[in-house]
Design brief:
Blueprint (H helix, E strand, L loop, with lengths): L2 E5 L8 E8 L2 E6 L12 H4 L15 E2 L2 E2 L2 H19 L4 E5 L5 H15 L4 E3 L6 H11 L8 H6 L2 E5 L3 H4 L1 H14 L2 E5 L5 H4 L3 E3 L6 H14 L5 H7 E3 L15 H13 L3 E5 L1 H4 L4 H14 L9 E4 L6 H7 L14 H11 L12 H10 L4 E5 L3 H4 L3 H10 L3 E5 L12 E4 L8 E4 L4 E5 L12 H14 L8 H17 L14 H5 L4 E2 L17 E3 L15 E6 L15 H4 L6 E4 L1 H7 L6 E5 L4 E8 L7 E5 L4 H4 L24 E7 L1
Parallel strand pairs: 6-7, 6-14, 8-9, 8-12, 9-10, 11-20, 12-13, 14-15, 15-16, 21-25, 22-24
Antiparallel strand pairs: 1-2, 2-3, 4-5, 4-16, 17-18, 18-19, 21-26, 23-24, 23-26
This protein binds iron/sulfur cluster.
Keywords: 4Fe-4S, Iron, Iron-sulfur, Metal-binding, Molybdenum, Nitrate assimilation, Oxidoreductase
Cofactor: Mo-bis(molybdopterin guanine dinucleotide); [4Fe-4S] cluster
EC number: 1.7.99.4
């Protein structure tokens, strides 16, 4: 039985997997002991991937308006619709909404087509919902979207702060690594989270920060470190720039329990080897970028960065959010960590031999769907994602899709909430059939290899994109025959970034032949600490960014704060994990968690039904009364959709408010009210 080394389909930990095909669409899955991200460990989701590779529900043939058609007809239709929109309404009437589930090669092809050939910046990704605020914070502080840490820093840290991260459930293999560090060297673990999560239960200290209270807390921590004389003055003088008003912007007010704050200050003061791991709980906020900078400020000012066991570490949700960021899948970046200056646009246009390079950033995810709703965007191509469930105010998103005259969806599952709106439905390869690369949270590029024959008429996403580009007359620029050809082109293109002082540089792989690509071992761009030799700003110095706590309105109509969360054994909108009977046993339905005082006040009973209402919509859930939830706050998992759970659809509830810098929606703090059903 041949063993194929690949990577997990789910989270940004990026675990290596060994897959052995044992029968028709039947596969045994084990952790890859040689992969540096996981050394053989897997969590429940990765372990049960074999239960999700069957053909039940697969989209196997192209369809137009629900009818099976040939690939020729489907690609002609997509290209024709796109060309008509561009001709009649200009390039900005066209948009792509892509996904951290795409491989880097797919992402590269989509970005090139949109930004270099269609001539619009309107390509954004569901990674906007996941870590766009961390990206923006890193760009503001470091001059480039660079994660300055590696997993080995978790092994070497004396103190790990987990901010807005239920690591034990959402990044379980990283959690196992942290637990090991605790066993081996007594690493202290602090969880900073409004909820007492499963991770907080196991921490040395849980700091129950108010919703969106992280900026005040990290400003106060830095204020304390400065008062105690614990700044790294030499590092500040040598490597860091602060605005004139930075130090006066700090305040001692922290908003958390004074005893917990004292303990946290004591731990910080005693343990210079500190890693702060932050995730969606910090990012999914209308002040997420400021939270990221408040965290980075603390690390820069105390010199806890670019050293083993220290640094601010943003961990991504999806398997290839990082790869998408590298090639330029966010509307706010051109390509390969380059922006939209005249020099950068000229360089990219020259590299691609692009006829119409876009003039500036495109619309970010929430704005993109607003533009679809208003009719400004008349063509949207959605690839490998399910925005009808996953975007905030999903009722509005469904309205937008229903109004849009040209909806193209590339999918592996035939009947998702989003696929129901498609005029053209394109069958793509699924995990196990896909062949390409992904980048995990520590910038490690790994191969995702095919080990199953593609079923039906499914195709690789990059190939589908190239097919459309060719019909639009740009075949020469999209003439790749193999994913290795796309990867080589991307690797060569990072030379443009390197020439401009960026850390992203994988030009060493630009000459890889197909055998070399096939055998490619995991590698980390930038090495373990990519900013150690200098920050990629014009003067080589990082920036301390003054940030102020944001306020949120509460009112008697919506007195509660609604947080959206994730379950251990489900992934996003469950189109894959929902196929696994084993995973479905953990939490078979979505539960609204509420403390007993709020439940009594609202007339709710444990296991009864509750209607949750916000300014955006309403949904019904089962009630779970728990003291893990504080008074005034409730939480619900985000996974379930209409199709799967009747009325239990969570993302109908969060509103469209976004962080003003990153455009990331504030999923974690929505004004809500509850009543019995
Ligand atoms: Fe997959 Fe993430 Fe679990 Fe690793 S931790 S097995 S990458 S879901």
């Amino acid at each position: 039985m041949k063993a194929i080394r690949t990577t997990c389909a789910y989270c940004g930990v990026g675990c290596g997997i060994t897959a052995r095909v044992i029968g028709d669409r039947s596969v045994s899955i084990t952790g890859d002991r040689e992969h540096p991200a996981n050394a053989g460990r897997l969590c429940s989701k990765g372990t049960h991937l074999g239960e999700t590779v069957g053909l039940e529900g697969r989209l196997l043939h192209p369809r137009i308006n629900g009818n099976r058609v040939s690939w020729e007809a489907a690609l002609d239709s997509v290209a024709g619709r796109m060309a008509a929109c561009m001709e009649q309404h200009g390039p900005d009437s066209v948009a792509f909404y892509v996904s951290g589930q795409l491989l880097t090669e797919d992402y590269y092809a989509a970005n090139k087509l949109m930004k270099g050939f269609i001539g619009s910046g309107n390509i954004d990704t569901n990674s906007r919902l996941c870590m766009a605020s961390a990206v923006a914070a890193q760009v503001r502080a470091f001059g480039e979207d660079v994660v300055p840490c590696s997993y080995e820093d978790l092994d070497a840290a004396d103190l790990i702060l987990l901010v807005g991260s239920n690591t034990a459930w959402c990044h379980p293999v990283v959690w196992q690594r942290i637990e090991k560090a605790r066993e081996r060297r007594g690493t202290k673990i602090v969880v900073i989270d409004p909820r007492r999560t499963e991770t907080a239960e196991q921490a040395d200290l849980h700091v129950a920060v108010p919703p969106d209270g992280d900026v005040a807390l990290f400003n106060a921590l830095l204020y304390q470190m400065r008062s105690r004389g614990l700044l790294d003055e030499a590092f500040l003088a040598d490597r860091v720039e602060a605005d004139a008003d930075f130090w006066s912007s700090l305040s001692p007010g922290h908003g958390v329990d004074p005893g917990a704050f004292r303990k946290l200050c004591g731990l910080l003061a005693a343990h210079p080897r500190t890693v702060t791991l932050f995730s969606q709980g910090a990012n999914q906020s209308i002040c997420g970028t400021d939270k990221g900078n408040a965290i980075i400020n603390l690390h820069l000012a105390t010199g806890r960065i670019n050293r083993i066991g220290a640094g601010p570490f943003s961990i991504t949700g999806q398997p290839n959010a990082m790869g998408g960021r590298e090639v330029g899948g966010l509307a706010t970046m051109l390509a390969c960590h380059l922006g939209f200056s005249a020099d950068e646009r000229e360089a990219v246009a020259g590299f691609w031999n692009a006829p119409t390079i876009c003039s500036g950033p495109g619309l970010k995810a929430v704005d993109m769907f607003r533009a679809i709703h208003s009719g400004k965007i008349k063509f949207v191509w959605i690839m490998a994602t399910n925005p009808a469930v996953s975007l905030p105010d999903s009722g509005f998103v469904r309205e937008a899709l229903a109004r849009c005259p040209n909806v193209v969806v590339s999918e592996v599952i035939s009947d998702t909430d989003t696929a129901r709106f498609a005029h053209v439905l394109l069958p793509a390869h699924a995990w196990g059939e896909k062949d390409g690369t992904v980048t995990n949270s520590e910038r490690r590029v790994s191969r995702q290899r095919a080990f199953l024959a593609p079923p039906g008429e499914t195709r690789a996403d990059w190939e589908i994109i190239a097919g459309v580009a060719s019909r639009l007359g740009w075949g020469d620029a999209f003439s790749w025959q193999h994913p290795a050809d796309v990867f080589r082109e991307f690797a060569a293109m990072t030379g443009l970034a390197a020439e401009r002082g960026k850390a992203l540089d994988i030009t060493g792989y630009a000459g890889l032949d197909r055998n070399g690509y096939e055998a490619l071992a995991p590698f980390q761009w930038g090495g373990e600490r990519p900013l150690a030799s200098g920050f990629p700003t014009a003067d080589g110095r990082a920036r301390l960014v003054p940030v102020k706590p944001a306020g949120h309105a509460t009112g008697k109509d919506f007195p509660l704060r609604l947080n959206t969360a994730r379950y251990r054994d489900q992934w996003h909108t469950m189109t894959r994990t929902g196929l696994s009977p084993t995973l479905s046993q953990h939490r078979p339905e979505p539960i609204l968690e509420i403390c007993s005082a709020d439940a009594v006040r609202a007339g709710l009973t444990d296991r009864g039904l509750v209607k949750v209402e916000t300014m955006s919509g309403e949904s019904v859930f089962r009630v779970g009364i728990t003291d893990a939830q504080r008074a005034g706050e409730v939480s619900i998992p985000m996974h379930w959709s209409d199709a799967m759970a009747g009325e239990g659809r969570t993302n109908r509830l969060p509103c469209q408010d976004v962080d003003p810098v990153s455009g990331q929606p504030g999923f974690k703090n929505t004004a809500a009210r509850v009543s019995p059903v």
